[in-house]
Amino acid sequence: MSETSGPVVSYIIAQADVPAPGAGVGTEGGSHETGGSAHGVQIGTPGEEAHGSNFPPFDATTYPSQFIWLAIAFGALYLLMSRIALPRIANILEERHDRIADDREEAARLTAESEAAAVAYEKALAAARGKAQGIAGETRDKLSAEAETKRKTLEAELSAKLSAAEAQIATTKESAMSNVRGIAIDAASTIVNELIGEAPASHAVETAVDTAIKS
């Protein structure tokens, strides 16, 4: 027999000594079988030992402690959320809501102010236009009145100057006509004296000159 056949034979003997489920352990044979079972467990493979144990969360004997710790963890989480996290979240939401409401009120106020400013601007612009038109009309009427006054004054001055010029012309004409009459009388007397060798009567010469001037 080879050296590797020893452990195999021991494993087979150990499996043969494992007692059936529910077998008694008080008898000598039972003690021998239990000892063989223990001996068999020691030489068994690791996979069989792991297969025989239970996962602790799925072990029914740990359910009460798991429920207790679950209740403690849930209560602690509830207290943490209700006393710290949820109030902070509520405060943040309330502050955000208040801020949004304030922003809306501010936007509405600014909109109303801008609309009021636009209406006031339109009124001021209309008043300025009316005032400008009134000022333009007053200025036009004033300039027209001043121009009319200046025209009348100029016409009066021109009329006075024209009258003075006509009077001066008339005076100059009369003066010139007087000089012409005297010159004509002297010239006629001289011509008649040269022609007939005798000085004519001054009365006759003046009458003849006046008749010639009038004609």
Explain what you see.
- It contains 5 helices and no strands.
- Among the domains are: 1-45; 169-214.
- The longest helix has 134 residues, at 63-196.
- It has helices spanning 5-17, 28-43, 46-52, 63-196, 202-214.
Summary, kept brief:
It contains 5 helices and no strands. The chain is mainly alpha-helical.
Compute the number of strand runs: 0
Q: Considering DSSP H and I runs of 4 or more, what fraction of the residues is helical?
A: over 70%
Average of the residue pLDDT scores: 75
Low-confidence runs: 1-9, 11-52
The share of residues in extended strands comes to under 5%
Could you state the oligomeric state of the chains shown?
Answer: single chain
- Give the count of helical stretches: 5
What is the 3D form? rod-shaped
Which structural traits does this protein have?
215 residues, mainly alpha, disordered N terminus
Topology:
Elements: H1 5-17, H2 28-43, H3 46-52, H4 63-196, H5 202-214
Helix pairs in contact: 1-2, 4-5
